[in-house]
Amino acid sequence: SGGWRIRLNLAQALMSYSDILLLDEPTNHLDLDATIWLEQWLRNYQGTLLLISHDRDFLDAVSTHIVHMYHQKTELYKGGYSDFELRRAERLAQQQSQFEKQQVRIAEIESFVNRFKAKATKAKQAQSRVKELERMELIAPAHVDSPFTFSFQSSDKISFPLLSLDDCALGYQQPVLNNVKLTLSPGDRIGLLGPNGAGKSTLIKTLTQDLPQINGLYKAGEHLKIGYFAQHQLEALDLEASPSLHIQRISPKASDQEIRNYLGSFDFNGDRALEPVKLFSGGEKARVALALIAWQRPNLLLLDEPTNHLDLEVRHALTLALQSFEGALILVSHDRHLLRNTVDQFMLVANGSVTPFDGDMDDYQQWLATQRRTQNQTIDTPRENRSVSAAEKKEQKRLEAERRKALRPLRNAVDKLETELDKTTAKLQQLESQLADNSLYEEVNKENLKKLLQQQGELQQKSEKIEADWLDKLEELEQLESETTI
To answer: Which of 57, 146, 285, 452 is the most exposed place for a label (fewest CB within 10 A)?
Structure first.
């Protein structure tokens, strides 16, 4: 499955003897437990690590230097990401001060030149000032404003409580979680912790009623309005529609200017707000999905891994938006910085139950370490033999058939994407064989080379998109399989 294939690729890289290790977004498809494990492994790595990541805590834990790439330049900062933020702020403040001083000097010179250039006695000094201006290396103003200014405005109408589960069993054919009791009121801010496949997504799907409880009482408040984000919702976007059209479909009476102004807060400015979603990256699609949620002003936010594909600037904006949200929040994330700064209590989803977790992220890390030690010490013992009745066998077969039926559409989608990926890879290999011909780089073949390079770029972009979709589908399938195991 997707998550495990990524872990396998990562394991191959880690276990190969190396002097330098190159990792590009290694935590993107890992859960919190695996992210913490990888962090600990990398801290003991003896070689040189070159890492691209949008996870602040992860960068702080494993990096000794930060290379900042900005405006086609690179700058090296000593320390982790938090140190980089501090040093960069200091540099920007210094740059802005120098810019302002230079602007004052330029104004003085221009005033002198304009005043005295026509006077013979001062012409020489005026010309000297002009030359000073020409030699001056202009300092750019420091731009630190974020293009993201969105927020989550809560609905005017609220209920107390918003939603409650009383003694519920949650799952598919058979319970994944039992005896679940949960009451949500405005202002509650809950982070869900627990191993992958323990039932965090099952709990959230039950709260949205995408997956009804098996038994127990589900009670929604009169004014409950849910905003739900999960990775599969990115695939539900209309690829031919623009961000603006997505909003118009929700609110037909909203004016074009109102919608354009709103989308600008998510950095969809100008014509970008009118372009079809199919041209967008994974991060841009995630911003569209978040924009659709915020537009509808929910009073309960259910966010399942909202930071996948988001860069650090958008994650920071999301953190600020969630901090000011006045409704209730339930958050599943492998981004510890986001959890630490937006929730004030944790629930542990593990061993078939949902219980309050009395501690913070550091305590959870210790809990994980204890769990691993316990698992390593466990010795498998043969299962006790017992006879199984014909009725039980029949029921088991029926449940397995239902499970296969539920998983079939997702498996078909995975197979289709794999086929597309294979075809695209074959075409790329064929193109690369053509590009290996030295005669292609002669002047007479210049146009043909240009055409082949353009085709290669288009195919690479297509291949990356298919692979990203394939990985997302595989991860969704893995999650569903783990939560529907009989």
So the answer is: 146
